[in-house]
Amino acid sequence: MGEEVKEKKPNKYVEGFKGFCTFLYNPDDHTVFGRGGASWGKILIFYFFFYSCLAGFFAVCLTVMLTTIDPKVPTVVGRTNKPMVATYDSRLYTINFKDPNKFGDYQKGIDALKAIYDSEDQTKVAEAGGFEWNEDNLGECSRSQNMKNKLRDKEPAQACLYVGLNRIYNWSPPKSESFDVLSFECNWDAGKTGSGNLDPPFTMAMEGSYDLTNFYPWTSMEENGLQPISAFKITADATKMPAVEDQDDYKMDTFVVCNAVMKNANGTSIPLEGSRPAEFEIKYDFTIFSE
After folding, report:
1. For 274, left (φ over 0), alpha (ψ -120 to 50), or beta?
2. 35 vs 170: CA distance, rounded Å
3. How many angstroms separate the CA atoms of 250 and 269, rounded?
4. Minimum mean pLDDT among 72-76, 179-183, 198-202, 241-245: which range?
5. Measuring CA to CA, which residue among 113, 148, 85, 124 is closest to residue 225?
6. How many C-beta neighbours within 10 Å does residue 88 have?
7. What's the CA gap between 252 and 199, in Å, rounded?
8. Which range (98-102, 214-218, 259-263) has the least confidence?
9. Rounded to an integer, what distance in angstroms lies between the CA atom of residue 137 and that of residue 187?
10. Which helix (H) or strand (E) holds 230?
11. What is the pLDDT of residue 77?
12. Are 161 and 258 in contact (CB under 8 A)?
């Protein structure tokens, strides 16, 4: 009996690759991806007109939408916008008296903010009655050189907090018969973790002008410029320094919460309706009382 001849099975990977190559281009049918020249021509013509119509539709929609938008007046006003207290440079939210480098970053933040208010456009607005960065409005807080992270030339360590409201088109502070002055108030706070010192070795007072009512309503950067800001000076007070035996348990940081308020002629204040506060952190140690 003769030997049984076994049929050799084709390699499935090779056959698969050959089939894929045939799909890419079939020399027998002269097709690419299974389609001939006429079929590809019809598809290209169809999608050319389809996407042309689609692009034209979106262009018309965009043109119609842009004709309804005023570059100076927002379409929706007052529905969701609420006044919020804030400062305009993230480096100004933390004052670190015990780290010279971090305190230097804080001073650079002041210079950056001052540069914005000293710009040519803002200067023109200020000349027309807008807010101006100067000593009349900000007192000693108008210059970063006045900030000190420790006792120098017998002058105590001091720094400033800067607060203002976000820009809301055509917004004016709500006035009542007696509470008609827009201002800010800042107070010591324990912070979200409760670790803040509520009686830190500092005093805090507003610097410069406190009445911001005349700068509102705000309508545009061209007419009103940047929104007005207020500054609170924080000064180290050696008389509030704890006794030596109590210093180990003394909390070395504190927080400040600043709110927008309406004041009357007697200085009594009420919170500005709907406003949200700003929170600041102050870090320090007892080196602020030594040169």
Report:
1. left
2. 63
3. 32
4. 241-245
5. 124
6. 17
7. 11
8. 214-218
9. 21
10. strand 229-236
11. 67
12. yes
Q: With beta carbons less than 8 A apart as the criterion, state whether 53 and 59 touch.
A: no
Q: What's at 158, amino acid-wise?
A: Q
pLDDT at 5 over 60: no
Distance CA 207, CA 140 (A): 7
Write out the DSSP string of 165-194: EPP-TTB-----SS--EEEEEEEEE--TTS
Distance, CA of 142 to CA of 160 (rounded, Å): 9
> Whose CA is closest to 204, among 141, 290, 113?
141
What value does the CA radius of gyration of the chain take, rounded to a whole number of Å? 34
d(CA 161, CA 184): 11
Q: Kindly give, in sequence order, each residue whose CB lies less than 8 Å from that of residue 234, ignoring residues fewer than 6 positions away.
A: 95, 158, 159, 160, 161, 202, 203, 204, 256, 282
The values of phi and psi at residue 16, to 5°, are -65, -40
The closest alpha carbon to 109, from 254, 251, 280, belongs to 280
187 band by pLDDT with thresholds 50, 70 and 90: very high
Q: Order of strands, edge to edge, in the sheet holding 202-207? A: 85-86, 158-165, 229-236, 202-207
